[in-house]
Design brief:
TIM Barrel, binds (4S)-2,6-dioxohexahydropyrimidine-4-carboxylic acid, alpha/beta, 14 helices, Urease, subunit C, domain 1, 2 domains
């Protein structure tokens, strides 16, 4: 009797750890049940001819703004943007209102996401002076992506600036800590450069390379002293990459598509405050250094740092304008364009967007196409030529710094635990995202 599946993806070019080749994939009960020649029938036959089947893309750094800033984004709009962009899981940051610094705030986000999130999700808890004692307990909670530390002030009030406080956070638990590394003292000292008003081109002068390097150097010393590993988010400088390359045992490294694609001063002249984010977009020499680090294996993952603000907010004069730009929907087409242009291989893309985040954060059952894993897939057409436009953006903010970007490579379908949730630019069915499971946490 032939095998029966819920879904068979037919004739796609499948990317696995073993290589890239034509294969069918059979899915049963939300998990991958067979890869290769899959005889049998299914409830749904999906013809993937001409498409590449990648493990679902995990965006491990997004800000979805709910609760508190729903005029910028919420869990429904932000995860719809993710699904439309080929992303199957997001890890969300704690600088909401209230901040995600208590078990109750984490539980509230999980409850809000139920039935409204289009993709699987987990939430970071923010480290703060008041909650250091309870971080270890919180990072064990189901649906918790880990602990996030802001060493420098960015959007919101979360801040752990002093060595003593960072050390206390590192001593508090056991999972890898995600860190925004900018040195607060230097930020305060240099703020006068822009205080009276300035061109956004000054953003990387105020928050200069030394500001980032100082924080990352301090952090690595604290990691050495405490033995707790960290993940340095959105690394932006050549100097940090050189340092991090010497400490692969202590820290993992994220870069963003925007730091790999945009460079100052051109982006500030063209986009003004829309190019303003923390840490800043820097000049071409840093951009090329990030690519070199990526090429040499120093970079572990790519996250979008999706940080929507409204156009109205962004139109405030610099530096009152908020820092951050959306990115969860554009991560896949922007990075596939770099693949098409020969800057990285498709397998390295998968390593950075699926296997990498899964490995760093200890995600259970996601991050590769393998039997028994969740049937999360990002189906892409590597030859599709399309232009990214603001009108395509589902984020409530309604804009992208990549408006007008001519992409080569496009997400055609997003499959979440065996259900097609996006096909040809349309969301399908209902929002059935679930909390991501981590190896260190109990099941929900
Ligand atoms: O530019 C940024 N925006 N960097 C951050 O660290 C926070 C983010 C936000 O939440 O707007």
């Amino acid at each position: 009797m032939p095998d029966r599946y819920d879904l068979i993806l037919r004739n796609g070019t499948v990317v696995t750890a073993a290589g890239i080749g034509l294969a069918d994939i059979g899915v049963r009960d939300g998990r991958i049940a067979a890869i290769g020649a899959v005889p049998g029938s299914a409830e749904l036959d999906f013809d993937a001819t001409g498409l590449h089947v990648l493990p679902g893309v995990i965006d491990s750094q997004v800000h979805l703004r709910e609760p508190g800033f729903e005029h910028k984004e919420d869990l429904a709009t932000g995860t719809a943007a993710a699904a439309l962009g080929g992303v199957t899981a997001v890890f969300e940051m704690p600088n909401t209102k209230p901040t995600t610094t208590t078990p109750e705030a984490l539980a509230d986000k999980l409850a809000r996401a139920a039935g409204r999130a289009w993709v699987d999700h987990a939430f970071f808890v923010g480290a703060a002076a008041e909650n250091i004692e309870s971080l270890a307990e919180m990072e064990r909670l189901p649906g918790c992506a880990g602990v996030k530390v802001f060493m420098g002030s960015s959007t919101g009030s979360l801040l752990v600036a002093e060595d003593e406080a960072v050390r206390a956070v590192l001593r508090s638990g056991f999972r890898r800590v995600a860190v925004h590394a900018e040195d607060e003292a230097r930020l305060v000292e240099r703020k006068a450069l822009v205080d009276g008003g300035a061109h956004p081109r000054m953003h990387p002068e105020w928050r200069d390379a030394e500001t980032a390097l100082r924080a990352t150097s301090r952090l690595l010393r604290l990691v050495e002293a405490t033995g707790r590993r960290v993940h340095v988010l959105h690394v932006t400088t050549a100097e940090e990459m050189a340092l991090l390359a010497r400490h692969r045992d202590l820290a993992s490294v994220e870069v963003t598509p925007q730091h790999l694609t945009l460079a100052g001063p051109e982006c500030y002249d063209r986009l003004g405050t829309l190019a303003q984010m923390n840490p800043p977009i820097r000049d071409e020499s840093h951009r090329l250094a990030l690519w070199r680090a990526l090429d040499q294996g120093v970079v572990d993952c790519i996250g979008s740092d999706h940080a929507p603000h409204t156009l109205d907010e962004k139109s405030k004069p610099y530096p009152q304008s908020p820092s951050g730009m959306p990115g969860v929907q554009t991560l896949v087409p922007v990075m596939l364009t770099h693949v098409a242009e020969g800057r990285l291989s498709l397998q390295r893309f998968v390593d950075l967007t699926s296997a990498g985040p899964a490995r760093l954060y200890g995600v259970a059952r996601k991050g590769r196409v393998a039997v028994g894993y969740d049937a999360d897939f990002t189906l892409v057409d590597l030859a599709a030529r399309r232009t990214i436009t603001n009108s395509w953006i589902a984020s409530r903010c309604g804009w992208t710094p990549f408006d007008g970007f001519k992409a080569i490579g496009w997400p055609i379908a997003t499959i979440l635990r065996g259900r097609v949730v996006m096909h040809d630019g349309q969301l399908i069915g209902d929002a059935a995202g679930r909390p991501v499971m981590f190896q260190e946490c109990g099941p929900l």
